[in-house]
Structure formats: C-alpha cells, structure tokens
TrEMBL record:
Protein name as annotated: Methylenetetrahydrofolate reductase
Domain of life from the UniProt record: Bacteria
Metabolic or biological pathway, per its Swiss-Prot or TrEMBL entry: One-carbon metabolism; tetrahydrofolate interconversion; Amino-acid biosynthesis; L-methionine biosynthesis via de novo pathway
Keyword line: Amino-acid biosynthesis, FAD, Flavoprotein, Methionine biosynthesis, NAD, Oxidoreductase
Cofactor: FAD
Listed transmembrane segments: none
GO biological process: methionine biosynthetic process; tetrahydrofolate interconversion
GO MF term set: FAD binding; methylenetetrahydrofolate reductase (NADH) activity
Enzyme class: oxidoreductase
Any one GO CC term of the record: cytosol
Known EC number: 1.5.1.54
Length: 280
C-alpha cells in the first residue's frame, strides 16, 4: 500500500501442524497475495503450536515474498528465552513482531514467566533491540476478559503503546460502535498509533461461538439466531457471513479505520470474498 490514506490490509495465519496443513497455508497465502497485504502475521503458542512452528511459518511466508511478523508472547518465558528468540528473528532479517502476554494453557498452572504483561514485553523488546522491530500489540474494544473494568483495560493498553508499540490490532468484534468508542477513548488518552480492527470471517457457527466464548467477543443475538437457523447449510452460513462481515468492514473503513487485519484461519476464501466486495 503506497500512502497513509489507503487502508492497509494484513493477514493472520497459524503455524501448520502437518504436511497437509503446510500445503493449506501456502495455498491460502498465495491466493491472498492478490490483496497485496502490508504484512502477514503468524500466531505463537495458541492451540499448542510451538516456537519453531511459528518461526518455520514465518520463513515460509517470507519466501513467498510477504513481510511476515511472528507473534511473540512472554507468558511462561524467561528474559533469556525471549532474547534468544528476538536475536534469531533479527538474524533472519525479520523486522516486525506482534508482542503479547499470551495465556497459560487452561488448568495447567505452571510458571508464568519473568514478564507479567505485554507492556513489559514491549519495553524489553525496545531495550534489547532498539528500533529494529516494528511492534504491534493487541487491543480489546469489548474489554479483555480478565480485565477488572473497561477503563483499567484501556489504561493497560495505553501503557503498551507508551512502552513503544507502533500499532495495535484489535480482538475481533461484530459491533463497530465498540471499536469507534475504544479508538475515541484511546485517542483522548494521547494514543496516536493506528488501531487496526481484527476481522473474523463467519464460516462455521460452532467454531465462532467457541472462539468468541474464549476470547470475550460478543456475537450479537441476531447473528446467533440467523446462524442457528441455517443449521448445517454451509453455503447459506458462508453467504450470510460474507454479507455481515463486508458490511462491518465497510462501516469501519468509511469511518476512519486505518486498515483491516483478517484472521484467516489459514483459509483464503472468506476473507477474499469480503475483500472483493469492499469499495476501497
Ligand atoms: P496484556 O496487554 O498484558 O493484558 C492482559 C490482561 O492483563 C488484560 O486484562 C489487561 O487489562 C491486564 N493488565 C495489563 N497490564 C496490567 C497491569 N500492569 N496490572 C494489572 N493488569 C494488567 N494468544 C496467543 O497465545 N498467541 C497468539 O499468537 C496470539 N495472538 C493474538 C493476536 C491478537 C491481535 C489478539 C487481540 C490476541 C492474540 N492472542 C494470542 C491472545 C492474547 O494472548 C490473550 O488475549 C492474552 O490473554 C492477553 O494478551 P495481551 O498481550 O493483550 O496482554
């Protein structure tokens, strides 16, 4: 994307776990190069994926010509672990990273690591590597599920930005007003970095409800009811999902969102269908 007024699209992938998954990732990424993504990112630790899996997927995507950003979470990690990972990415010429606290696997307890929150990770990355990395952090328009209040969560977000983040990607949401309200409140606290909405395509009713329950994203009642009515009719769910998500994206872009970050789940079809409908 050539100028700051053109919305920037970015794409999120997860590390494949087997050969079929690897082929799916490459296929999806190749199809989605049509969008000319500003960058792509690869999740870390989520669903049991490993550090090596993230690094491998980043390499695969960079070999396809994408600017690829690994996600890096500090939960369960020592400073030395994080230093080693950052150095390895630096040695490979990676210039972006998505910095997160992450979550310990539920019910497993264990060592929380040396850094407690994402703002400490951002500070650590800046201390260790200066301006080498462009750092993205997470934002929660509908509040992070563990936060004590929306204003406390906002303050914690502002702390991450002040620690040196260059941009933010939001948790997904289906209510655009939550995003606009969050951006207004962040800007009122002096935040000037882009806050890019994270967009979850709607393709699978059960999976959407499960993810949303875990991450605290609200699926509006009318969407849940429509999806329930479609039952196993995948084509109708898909068509409805493309309509709903396209309308959300258009509203966001028309009202000032600086870009869109698609959670692809390693499938190109739904994000591409939305992108093709957008008037940008
Ligand atoms: P933080 O910003 O540290 O916030 C976590 C919680 O702590 C919030 O409730 C916040 O309000 C609170 N908090 C922050 N600072 C303080 C403080 N000083 N005192 C008290 N409370 C505080 N997870 C993965 O495992 N792998 C991934 O690849 C991944 N990618 C993601 C990408 C995006 C765009 C998003 C939105 C989320 C992603 N997640 C991923 C999920 C994320 O790890 C979880 O939501 C995690 O619970 C919080 O991470 P965070 O970086 O937002 O944490």
């Amino acid at each position: 994307m050539s100028d700051s007024t053109t919305p920037a699209f970015s794409l999120e992938f997860f590390p494949p776990r087997d050969l079929a998954g690897q082929e799916r990732l490459v296929r999806a990424a190749k199809q989605m190069l049509a969008i000319q993504p500003k960058y792509v990112s690869v999740t870390f630790g989520a669903g049991g994926s490993t550090r090596a899996g993230t690094a491998d997927a980043v390499r695969t995507l960079r070999n396809l010509g994408c600017d690829a950003a690994p996600h890096l979470s500090c939960v369960g990690a020592s400073r030395q672990d994080l230093r080693d990972i950052l150095q390895a990415y630096k040695n490979e010429g990676v210039r972006r990273v998505v910095a997160l606290r992450g979550d310990l696997p539920s019910g497993m307890g264990g060592d929380a690591g040396e850094l407690r929150y994402a703002n400490e990770l951002v500070s650590f990355i800046r201390e260790e590597t200066g301006d080498w990395f462009h750092i993205e952090v997470a934002a929660y328009p509908e509040m992070h599920p563990q936060a004590s209040s929306p204003s406390a969560d906002l303050d914690h977000f502002v702390a991450k930005v002040n620690a040196g983040a260059d941009a933010a990607i939001t948790q997904y949401f289906f209510n655009a007003d939550a995003y606009f309200d969050f951006v207004d409140r962040a800007q009122a606290k002096g935040v000037r970095v882009p806050i890019v909405p994270g967009i979850m395509p709607i393709t699978n009713h059960t999976q959407l409800l499960r993810f949303s329950e875990m991450c605290g994203a609200e699926v509006p009642r009318w969407i849940r009811l429509r999806l329930a009515e479609f039952g196993d009719d995948k084509a109708s769910i898909r068509a409805f999902g493309v309509d709903v998500v396209t309308e959300l994206c258009q509203n966001l872009l028309d009202n000032g969102a600086p870009g869109l970050h698609f959670y692809t789940l390693n499938h190109a079809d739904a994000p591409l269908a939305v992108w093709k409908e957008l008037a940008v």
